Amino acid sequence: MNRPGRDIFIFAGGGSGGHLCPGIAVAEALKRLSSDCSVVFACSNRPVDRKLLEPLGYAMVPQPVLPVPRGPVGWDRFLRAWVRSSMQARRMLRDLRPAAVLGLGGFAAGPLVKRAGKSHIPTALLNPDAVPGIANRYLAGYSDVVFTQFAAAEEGFPARHRRRVRLVGCPVRRGFFEATRRQGIEAFGLDADKKTLLVFGGSLLASAVTDSAAAIAEDLEQLADSWQVLHITAEDKTAAVRDAHAGGRLGVHVMGYCDRMDLAMAAADLALCRAGASTLAELAATATPAVLMPYPHHRDRHQYINASDAVDTAAAMIADDSGDVAANAEALRRTLLPIMRSDDRLSVMRQAAEELSATDAADEVAGWLLRKTAADL
Question: Which of 109, 156, 165, 363 has the CB geometry, 3.0–4.6 Å to 103, for a possible disulfide?
Answer without folding.
Answer: 109
